[in-house]
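User: Please predict the structure of the protein below. I'd like the answer in structure-token form so I can feed it into my own downstream comparison script.

Assistant: Understood. Taking the following sequence of 412 residues as input:
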Amino acid sequence: MDATLFRNVRLFDGLADTLAEGVELLVEGDRIKEVADRPITSATARVIDAGGRTLMPGLIDAHVHAYGSEADLGRLERLPRSLQALQAAERLRQSLQRGFTTIRDAGGADWGLAIACETGLIAGPRLFYPGRALSPTGGHGDMRPNTMLDQFCGCCAPAMALGVIADGVDEVRKAVRGELKRGAHAIKIMASGGVASPSDPIYALQYSDEEIACAVWEAKAWRSYVLAHAYTPESIHRAVRLGVRSIEHANLIDAPTAAFMAEREAFAVPTLVTYDALEEEGPALGLPAASMAKLASVKEAGLGSLEILARAGVRMAFGSDLLGTMHRRQSDEFVIRRQVLPAAEVLRSATSTAAALLKQEGALGVVAPGALADLILVDGDPLADIGVLTGQGERIPFVMKGGVAMIDRLAA
């Protein structure tokens, strides 16, 4: 059994508000065997002297679109799936380089991509995915040109790389069951309008109570859950009332709705970095003018939404939601959140809180005996300067996933 012994580390365990000094850690196989504040001995382990670097859980991004290689989602739908898969493999490799050992795709990734990550065919993070996101006709996931609406039903439309159109309870039920059969760990629905879709207003409610309740029931029947794209208080409250567990974005949330989320123990996954990126780079990357016009209202409310959610006690997981070449800004979300939230809370959003969202408490997002050995070494102290996590992994010289060193620049 392969083993690795880390010495001379400062430890962020994914839970505490401070770093532990002088810690040693032993990995055996794919699990953490021992964590101690005294010397650990092993006759077979590779010994890594961390030189005082910070050891912490591998990062988790809970809102990624692995197949989102274009900012113009209409153009993305016209690309061959084979090309999208190759582009997705590169995006996943880049995420791993930045220290993300787990991602939750939020629409588009499939079981083939997950198997490629799991078997090592491609070097990427652990991949949790909901399959294609469910959208009603004209909703946030309907990227068909208007001329196509009468030519193809939603389920048979060409491409539909990130979503599938399902109208009515029966179609929703069939779509949910289909995605679960294909290995989806959760189900995503569109509950309000969005930025990237050019035709639906942000305030638009999407899906009826009956359709949302159907999706929730079918997911729970598989011991799974539903995540919902939602911006406005009305869309968020309705989704949570009907049993949705994870609200994506939530920029326009108000205090009463946040309190209701906390009462129902729902999670939020803000994705503020994507609005900064879209504002600066969207037009050049082909984001339609109609989408740019909708961007201002949600971007302006972003930081305020973090404060509202935090005051209510809503658990917030880390998300980025970046498209195309903007994916390089994935870790900038740390710095944006740090403007209004304590550093430890921001770090937990990408470790233990995100693991709880994924129903992986104790296995991911923590450094503790029995947890999976997903670990990163960081140059510097992310609690003192969270910016050490930004960039393309320049200050993350070592990344381990399941006890295997995926990136090792310690000897360089």
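That's the full token string. The longest helix spans residues 81-97.
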